[in-house]
Amino acid sequence: MVESWEINGFTLEYIDDTHTYLVDGIIVPSITQLIKMKFKNKYDAVPKEVLKKAADKGTAMHLAIELYEKEGKESDLVELKNYKFLKKHLKWNVIQSEIPIILFYNDKPIAAGRLDQVIEMNGKKGINDLKRTASFDKEYVALQTNLYRIGYKQSYGTEIDFVSGLHLRDNTRKFYKLPVNEEYAIGIIEKYLEKRKENE
């Protein structure tokens, strides 16, 4: 399946079978691939079947939350129940779900991705990432959401005030407000581009 969007004068395509992003027909890395340069592949030592099972559960959770937000569809997933509890308790509204973005550097597209949610809380707009991992890696999610924040602003010209992460797994339910650090995120982009140049 191929999905396509017009973003800021560019055509972004996503090929689901191969998890490939293309901007105007040219393959670009995903935000996740860009982050791997800093964190390597955290899950290299985990057996493939374990990773597959975890990925399937994570996908099911994301889909249940997306369908709940877009269509009010209920599910018996415990993660959805905990999501609704936190949402009610912390009082946020979801403005958008599953939003495609292009990340630019010096006006050139260098990566793409799809962020989980843009939410509004206490009158401020934020990017919220949903995780169903065994543990919540704050540094990883902070970098991921900061890159999404830059890409979202570049793609849609909309300011984002904060970044956050939600850890939902079985009975775990935690909301994390994460630091906004654009300088650090841009530094990671520059390191990635330097490394890519060396490998050319």
Salient structural properties:
200 residues; alpha+beta; 5 helices; 9 strands
Architecture overview:
This protein has 200 residues and is an alpha+beta fold. It has five helices and nine strands; from the N terminus they run ββββαααβββαββα. The strands form two sheets. It has a five-stranded mixed β-sheet. A four-stranded antiparallel β-sheet has the order 1-2-3-4, with no helix packed on it. Helix 4 links the parallel strand 7 and strand 8. The protein is globular, with a radius of gyration of 17 Å. The mean pLDDT is 93.
Short description:
The chain has 5 helices and 9 strands.
Question: What secondary-structure arrangement, pairings included, does this model have?
Answer:
Layout: E1 2-7, E2 10-15, E3 20-23, E4 26-28, H1 31-39, H2 48-71, H3 78-90, E5 92-105, E6 108-121, E7 124-131, H4 138-156, E8 162-169, E9 172-178, H5 182-199
Parallel strand pairs: 7-8
Antiparallel strand pairs: 1-2, 2-3, 3-4, 5-6, 6-7, 8-9
Seen as an oligomer or otherwise, the chain set is: single chain
Mean pLDDT: 93
Give, in order, the helices and strands. Answer: EEEEHHHEEEHEEH
Structure annotation, total helices:
5
Radius of gyration: 17 Å
Share of residues in strands:
35-45%
Principal-axis shape: globular
